[in-house]
Each structure stands twice: as structure tokens, then as C-alpha cells.
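Example 3.2
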Amino acid sequence: MIKFRTLAVLVIALFIAGGCKFFGADAFSGSTLVWESGANNYFNREKPTSLPFIGKILVTGEVVKDQFINTSGMPWHSVTIKEYSPSADSMKFEGAFRYDGYALCDILSTVKVNKLSKDDFYPPTDLYVEVWNNKGEYVVFSWGEIFYSADPYKIIMAKSVSRVIPGKTGELWALPKESKIIAGNDLVTVRNISDPIKIVIKSLKGDFKVEREPANFTSGKLAFAIDGDRNAIREITELPSSLPEISSRSVYYGQSMGYKGEKMFTGVDFSLVMKSVFPADPSIFKNAIVCIEGIDGYRAAFSFSEIVNRSDSREPLLMTNGSEKGREGFSLFCRGDMFADRAVKGLSKITIMR
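Structure, written as C-alpha cells:
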């Protein structure tokens, strides 16, 4: 009896220590049970369908060395989305799905970056990535969208898919046949391209002048520009009076310096300002990057899509007339970020780059 109990304890210990892999269970994934219609779980009404994923992806660009990242053994995450994309002159709803796969933040976590701008600007806030497929298509994500987000596991390389089936109609949407990159926070899902094979890391390029302690840290004018054009296409000196003010309370936290206190930020929806200046055509959601630049040369990269194409209603706030140094003029607050690092102060210029 003692030997039996000892063996039972040993088996349980091995089960726990092995992360539940001892019995082939997928402890990282959450529930994979399949429930009948009428159950309280609406996301698991059919068995997931595997997608052909190569299991490794090349990472290149501004890195110490090119390398293939093997996803074997990585934890995987579930993302639920409603696929909605342009079709001819209108939009087409293509179904609601749960995708399971490997988070882009996990894939890139061990990559050694060799940023071209590191000598004069060390923070990684100006980095972004291009994700390419085997058809020559690519989409862009900002570094902050991957690593500073309050929900960093919403961008995945999908290895399986299941439909989120309506309980009454039982409608079965057509399943994709190829692996995809899934941008879980996008409203219009044009960044969900198939068969991702390569990630290219890049940093913002421009005539930046870094001045860490500027005598004047107040920006009374905000310029909007398109990369390659010498002149600004628009300048504003105040927030648009037609836009309502939005207030957002935050427990402010920096990636390096930690807790910065509880703060209240008030401004206008930055996405609406951007849409009034730049055309918000879904075709540019795929590969347009935005450079947010301060008077002091501090800068942050944003994908155009994460500003104007969000499904979570957490668009950044454009602000002015704050009491904090650097926020007396234009500044930014990123409601969707965990960290404060992209909340640019002394905001002077916004450039869209394609």
C-alpha cells in the first residue's frame, strides 16, 4: 500500500513538473474542450482545425545576426477575432474565429537587436517590424504594439483555427487553408496575411536632432508630414474644437523606471485627428508606419493601423495645456499601452511613412 501511494505521488509530481505535458495536455492554451450549442462557452463549439505552419521563422534586419526562430515548445495563445476586410468597393464579413498560435512577442523576445540609431537614441521605442509571407506581401507592427501593449499576446502566428459558431443559426464560415498572422486588435483585418515566413526589424529614419534637456520643452505647434515631402501638409496650434474631450485615469508605469503615480489625462481621440489629415483607406492599414516626434528628439513608432483601426476603443489621446513639464503644449497618452514609454511629451511632428 505504501509503495502504491509513493508511486501515485511520484506520478502526480511528474505531471505537475512537466507542465501537464506528461499526458499530452496543452496546459498553456486554456480550454480546448468542445461544447455543444447552448453551453456557456461560446468559443469552443467545434474542434480546432490545424493550419500548415512551417514551425520556424527567419528574423533579420537590424539584428546582431540573422536567425531562424523555432516555435517548437513555445507556449501558444488563443485570439478571437471577427474577420472583416475590403471587397471591391465595400466591406465583407468573413466570419468569427478563434485562432491558436505563437505570440509575436514570444518569437522576438530572445532576438538580439542591433539598432542603427542606438548611438544617439537608445530606447527601442523607434523600432518596428515587417512581417513577410511567401507571396511577397508584408504588413507592419510597431515594437510598442508588440512589447508595450497592455495585452501583448493579441498578435500571433496561427497554427490552428476554429469557428465561433452562432448558437441559433449554426452558420459555418469558410475556414482558411493556410497559416496566418493574426492582428487581434484590428477592426478591419487586412493585416492577417497568410503564410508568414520572415520578420524584418527596422527603426525610424529621419533627420532627428536629440537634445535631452531642451531649454524650451513646450510645443505650441504640431506639424503633420508625409515621408519624402519637404513641407508639412498641415499644422495645428490647438486641438480641434469639434472633437469632444476624453478623460482617462491611469496608474502610470514606465518600462524602465516603474511606478510614476496615478494620473488623469484629458485630450481628444488621436485617431480622429489622424483621419482628418491622412486618408484612412484600409489599403494603408497594412504597411504604413507613423513617427511621433518630440522637440527633444524623443520618438516613437506606431503602426497606422494601431492608431486608426482599433477594435478595442482604446485609441491614444492627443493632449495640450497639461501641468506637467513637456505637456504644456502638445503631447500624447497611449491608452492601450501597459507602459508609459510611448507617451511622447513636447510633441512637435507626426510623419506617416509607407
